[in-house]
User: What shape does this take?
Amino acid sequence: MKSGDAVVGNVAKIAALFPHCVTECEQMLMGGGKKTVLKIDWDKLRAELDSELIQEGEERYQFTWPDKRAASRLANTPTDKTLRPDLEDSKDFWNTENLYIEGDNLDVLKVLRENYLGKIKMIYIDPPYNTGNDFVYNDDFAQGREEFEQSSGLFDEDGNQVVDPMQRNAESNGRFHTDWLNMIYPRLKVARDLLKDDGVIFISIDENEVENLKRVCDEIFGAKNFVAELIWSAGRKNDSKYISVSHEYILCYFRNADHIKENKIIWREKKQGLDDIYSAYAKLKKEFGNDIKAIEKGLKTWFKALPDGHPAKDHKHYNRVDNKGIYFASDISWPGGGGPKYEVLHPLTGKPVKVPSRGWITNSTTLHEWIDADKVDFGESEKSVPTLKAYLCDNEYAVPYSVFYKDGRAASKRLATLMGDKMFENPKDEEIIQRIIEFCGIHDGDIVMDFFSGSGTTAQSVFHASINKKINIKFILVQLRELITEDNATAEKGKKVARAAIALCDELGVPHNICEIAKERIRRAGEKVKAEAGLQGQGLDIGFRVLKLDSSNMEDVFYTPEDFDETKIVGLIDNVKSDRTPLDLLFQVLPELGIELSAKIEEKDVNGKKVFFVDGTYLVATFDTDVNESTVTEIAKMKPDYFVMRDASAANDNVLDNFEQIFKHYSPDTIRKIL
Assistant: This one.
């Protein structure tokens, strides 16, 4: 009951290219015994690649650090963890398609790799920046992960991460960059597998690790898939003696740049500030009616009065008006000169207008078609050169700029207003992430993932983007259950924030961890966005299924011969742990069958037994007790694609004996599975 082993898949790819380079070998099992596995014959593979083989000691370009190989192997190793649903903690569990997952994101990503392989449209993450105050996930390579978690003291009995200031990744640590790289490398490596061919990842970072992150991403995603290094300008800071560093970075990589080019996919975003311009124009039109001159004068005055930095000010050249709307008087001459020169008459005076010194931008036929369509502005007399009307409504979209101007204090204030107090010190700006989601070619039904989700900003951004784009965008958020205490804060300002978060947790009656605050933020943000959207927001999915990473649902039944005796036979009667529910088992089955964890699930009664129906009859499963032949027969008549039940669910041995025959008779194509 483990996730897939990425190494097995890689060996299969080698076997497809060079079958003679793969051979069968025996491998010892944990509980004794052996099994046959496929392994690479490196001598034969080297012979195939000899012309390109780097010789020992030969200099080459490389980027490495201590334990890099172990970090790479960690990404490929399977996990036996499972995701357990929490109905009470969820919002609209049975209908929502959004997921909020609590647990170590590396194990979560490995579980998700089973059924989200190549399905994620966009990933946005804001990982620890390695500033000297961040806790870095410690993926210990010298011992098992469970053993490490138990012995390290970094987790409490409920699985919350306990961050001790003495265990932060301080700059005095000799492995300062190494520990951070070993943390980020395997997570990005697994994340790459989840992206669609037209998928993209955005990673926020600051100057401490931006160079190392760029080199890691070049290696994992491929340098040719690099899109851009975006700048997030967050307002002036006065916390430096020399240079006030007032920006951060967002690295952007495609999953497959060749696919993007072949399918001629382009990115466009709506220009900022247009809504304000249209609103100002509407007010002026209401005030002055058809007085074009008065409206134009008022529009220019409005632009001039805007504060510096207002996005609408970038479009102040759109200050001309006619009965079709706002336009910009664009140059009508041939770029660079050499354009055709011919006579054009002014429509009011009937006299020839002034011909552009570089010639007209087009031929006489096309220009007169533009004139007939009222797309040319001649001015009041023939003494001025005509211009071409470029309407604002026809030029609302542009290629996204690489610089985002946003004051982070505004985002903090909005979040504090939503939550009733300041719960996070440096939350990301939901408006920036919304812009990124919208311009990266998002479509209806696409999934946005954030596996360092922190305060839950990405969920709120998805809500806004869904409304703005009039489509349904789904999210998957992952966050470690990090304990909130005043001791974790490094300054009085941070302690105050921690106290406010703890007070809210107490008010809600929930544990003191970051996940609880984030989930409450998502609940409040969803309701707010939906209410503000009015009728348009009625269909918005603001729910989320809460899933919590835990150990396998199955009992550990592997023993060495010397550890096994007849008293353990009784414990093997039921191979499922006693504290696990039928819904827990269903969510362990979903990844194994490649079904998304957001799939539509219904509980129905079949002959008095609780039966789960996933995506209609695509999967039918029951983990109830005393299931007899009549229940199995009724399910078989429904002809599901998959049917799953527990071995212990059968009322007696006859049910198991007749199980296959019943399905062969009524639904031979159904794929059956017994837990």
